[in-house]
Amino acid sequence: MTVHNSKLVPFISKEELHSRVSDIGNELSEKFKDKVPILIGILNGSFMFMADLMRALTIDCEMDFIKLNSYSGDETTGIIHLIKDISADITGRHVIIVEDIIDSGLTVNFIRKRLFEVSPKSLSIVTLLLKPDVAKLDFKVDIIGFEIPPDFVVGYGLDFNQKLRHLDSIYRLDLI
Questions:
Q1: Helices (H), strands (E): how many in the chain?
Q2: Residues 29-47: tens digit of each pLDDT
Q3: For a tag site, which of 37, 122, 128, 143 has the least CB within 10 Å?
Q4: How confident is the prediction for the chain on average, in pLDDT?
Q5: pLDDT in the model for residue 3
Q6: What is the full DSSP assignment across 53-111?
Q7: Contact 65, 87 (CB under 8 A)
Q8: Which pTM value belongs to this model?
Q9: How far is 139 from 71, CA to CA, in rounded Å?
């Protein structure tokens, strides 16, 4: 498929996504059994993953969102801009950061440090995608949906200049 002067190459199917999200939901439900965690989704990319993940949970939970920006086109600027902060009080709470993709690691490092400042009871990180070859992390990601190479991917909430989020599968974006 060609779109916006780019070729979309199938990467992770909607069936693979659904199966893995279900597995992650089961894992979180077991880990937080008898607790009420709050999921903090990182906008805009995590909204599809977080919605599906919440439907896969068998426990009570709450949700909130934080919005940051560090990209221009298909490259990180290296600077984190806080667009929308969380509104929930997470002090003493079990917090689960829900990320669509950990690429360079800048965003998740920023959020992790920011949330630790308000003393949550626990802080877990769940990401749908991780690029281990480029992520610079000095901590463990609790749950990883898929490890992927350093390709640029779109769909299932992931975008290219705010486009292509609507796709129900994940595609590698090859610029023509």
A1: 3, 10
A2: 999 999 999 999 999 999 9
A3: 122
A4: 92
A5: 67
A6: HHHH--S--EEEEEEEEEEETTEEEEEEEEEE---S--TTSEEEEEEEEESSSHHHHHH
A7: no
A8: 0.91
A9: 23
Tokens of 59: 């426990």
The lowest-confidence range among 21-25, 77-81, 124-128, 147-151 is 77-81
What the block records as the tokens of 114 is 């920011």
User: What is the set of domains in the chain, with CATH numbers?
Assistant: 2-67+88-175 (3.40.50.2020)
Q: What is the DSSP string of 34-61?
A: T---EEEEEETTTHHHHHHHHHH--S--
For 38, other C-beta atoms within 10 Å of its C-beta total: 17
- Percentages helix, strand, coil for the chain (3-state, rounded to 5) are 20, 40, 40
> How far is the C-alpha of 153 from the C-alpha of 170, rounded, in Å?
7
Distance CA 161, CA 75 (A): 10
Task: Return d(Cα 76, Cα 51) in angstroms, integer.
Answer: 26
Q: Among positive and negative, which fits the CA dihedral 129, 133, 138, 140? A: positive
